[in-house]
Write a structure and sequence with these properties.
The protein is mainly α. 69% of the residues lie in helices and 8% in strands. It has one domain.
Length: 97
């Protein structure tokens, strides 16, 4: 997980499905005797864990890596444009005097 210098945005480097699978597998492995459950019961438990995690994550300000990269790229272009415009203003101002 990589943080962003924004208010409360977090970027996940893996897809949501992989993230949910990884977290639910880790939680399920912490439960006592999870291996002793039948595969149907274990699958049901994993599904419930994934649903709980998914609903919790939906309440957070989370963006995908692709969304983060797109916004970072747009910000870099905007900053470059502002720098160009500032240089142009300085140039025009110096010509006036």
């Amino acid at each position: 997980m990589i943080g962003f210098d924004g208010p409360s945005y977090w970027v996940f480097g893996m897809t949501n499905k992989n993230l949910l699978d990884e977290i639910s597998d880790k939680v399920a492995s912490l439960l006592p005797k999870a291996e002793a459950l039948g595969s149907e019961m274990k699958d049901e438990l994993n599904a419930k864990i994934q649903n709980a995690i998914k609903s919790s994550l939906e309440s957070l300000d989370i963006v995908t890596r692709e969304e983060f990269n797109a916004q970072a790229s747009m910000l870099a272009r905007a900053e470059a444009r502002v720098a160009d415009l500032e240089a142009r203003v300085t140039e025009l101002t110096s010509k006036e005097t």
